[in-house]
Amino acid sequence: MPKGLRTAVPPWARARPPRHVVARRVVILAGVFVLALIPALLGVLVGWGGFLGWREKLPRSRGAGVRTDATMRSDEAFRVANRVAALPTMAAGVVGVLAGVAALAMPDTLGTVLATTFGIVAVFVLVAGGGVLGHRAASAVPAPVEPAGCGGCACSGGGGCGVLR
């Protein structure tokens, strides 16, 4: 039998690290996983909102979407603003998911923290840019025409004027 094979220690007989070292590694890995999950989940939520805006499925009554005075003045302005803001918002979602994946792939905790931080900042910058573009697009939409009142016909709503029907 060759000399090197006699001295090899089988895997089950090797010395194991103490329990506190294993527990610390588990806690660090769990923290890294949770930290990497933050930009990934944020990216999925933001990307989904961008997709709904692109498909013009965002309702005005909810809290999602571009919400400024210009966008809230009409349904058309809200629809146009969210359609314009959809592409940067979906890009922000992709950046968030990629930042989460990159944070998981980092070899140490500092890399994970940096990837998470830069990913979250990039998501917010892209969403803010999309909001600015959406606001500008909504400002370009003409204001809705207010219905004119009665022209002095003294109809009193009795069927003489079409405004009150």
Automatic annotation (TrEMBL):
Domain of life of the source: Bacteria
Ranges annotated as spanning the membrane: 26-52, 84-106, 112-133
Database matches in InterPro entries: SdpI/YhfL
Keyword entries, A-Z: Membrane, Transmembrane, Transmembrane helix
Protein name as catalogued: SdpI/YhfL protein family
Organism: Saccharomonospora azurea NA-128
Lineage: Bacteria, Bacillati, Actinomycetota, Actinomycetes, Pseudonocardiales
